[in-house]
Amino acid sequence: MRKIYQVCLLIICSTFLFAQNKELTNKIPGDTSFTIWGTNLKVTKQFPAASLVKFELDPRVVLHKDVVYKKEKGRTLHLDLFAPAEKRKKSSAAVLIIHGGGWRSGERSMEWPTAVKLAEHGYVAATVEYRLSPEAKYPTAIFDLKAAIKWLRANASQYNIDKNKIAVSGCSSGGELASFLGVTGDLLKFDEHKSNSKYSTSVQAVINIDGILDFTDPAESGKDSLPSKPSAGKAWFGSSFKEKPELWIEASPINYVNKRCPPILFINSSLSRFHAGRDVMIEKLNRLKIYSEVHTIENTPHPFWLFHPWFDETITCMLEFLDKTF
Fold first, then answer.
1. What are 111-163's pLDDT values in tens digits?
2. How many whole angstroms separate alpha carbon 22 and alpha carbon 16?
3. Domain ranges of the chain
4. What number of other Cβ atoms are within 10 A of residue 65's Cβ?
5. Does domain 53-325 correspond to CATH entry 3.90.79.10?
6. Which of 214, 218, 190 minimizes the C-alpha distance to 202?
7. What is the dihedral of CA 265, 183, 65, 61, to 10 degrees?
8. 3-state class of 297 per DSSP?
9. pTM, 2 dp
């Protein structure tokens, strides 16, 4: 009888804990349109020789996981920081890595393999969580990411970071966000608290991996022909381009190019829709004599950076650009 009672009690407690955890999980709206496993199925079907890059923590790298960088109205945001294990006299440049997923999906662990490779080569790399469109609309993600840059500078001494050498790198929608951070710098319009801070949000290099630069390009703005199938842009802005074009214009990095912009590397697939605005932006950068370069990896799917045989080439491009810049 006592055994039966204990089993019943265990079931009740387990049910309560499951319900409690489910309730906590459900507090943050999510979207699973971009997952690592779903992407793997799609890519390997089209490219049978492709294989998903696996995460392996190299002994030369130290991982600081689930570090809190921001608390906002009960919401806690985290980053995972990968640093060289060997103690160095000279501080390291840092790279904030922004995952993709159409501003509504994806997660920072997707970029762990990239972060490990950068840390192996002496960089401090941070994969960052930010609020996506099911939880919060534009420009919340930008506020979050600028807070992450401030956090890197505020904690530079603890993690041996050179606060004058911070880069942002992003893939797909993360590439758009990285570019936006690069061109807006310390623009107070995109400071969440609209106040000057002792820590700058400017960055010294940008890596855009297949991220658009102009939301008004028909490749983006022309998608909302069916109300039942809103585009990723509409989900992020809360309105289609026809309904509120001013938001789509405001969020386009090409509209903020100025003489203080950092050098930028574009790593692209062969799919032109993910290059929207790139050539116009490069023309503007050229006029200001700001360095940029383009590396196109031919015959690739959009999320090529997550797969072999394209991962190594992507990393090589990133490292060559970062070494040249820093």
1. 999 999 999 999 999 999 999 999 999 999 999 999 999 999 999 999 999 99
2. 10
3. 53-325
4. 12
5. no
6. 190
7. 30
8. coil
9. 0.91
Read off the pLDDT band of 195 (50, 70, 90): low
Instruction: Dihedral sign for Cα 313, 316, 320, 321, please.
Output: positive
**Cα 230 from chain centre:** 22
Place of tokens 């400017």: 202
Contact 235, 104 (CB under 8 A): yes
Give me the phi and psi of 128, to 5 degrees please. -120, 140
41-52: pLDDT as tens digits: 999 999 999 999
Three-state DSSP at 244 gives coil
**Residue 5 burial (CB count, 10 A):** 9
| AA letter at 107 | E
Number of other CB atoms surrounding residue 150 within 10 Å? 18
242, amino acid identity: K
Does the pLDDT of residue 22 top 50, yes or no?
A: no
pLDDT value, residue 24: 39
Amino acid at 3: K
Tokens of 222: 């022309």
Residues with Cβ within 8 Å of 271's Cβ and at least 6 positions away in sequence, in order, are: 210, 300, 301, 302
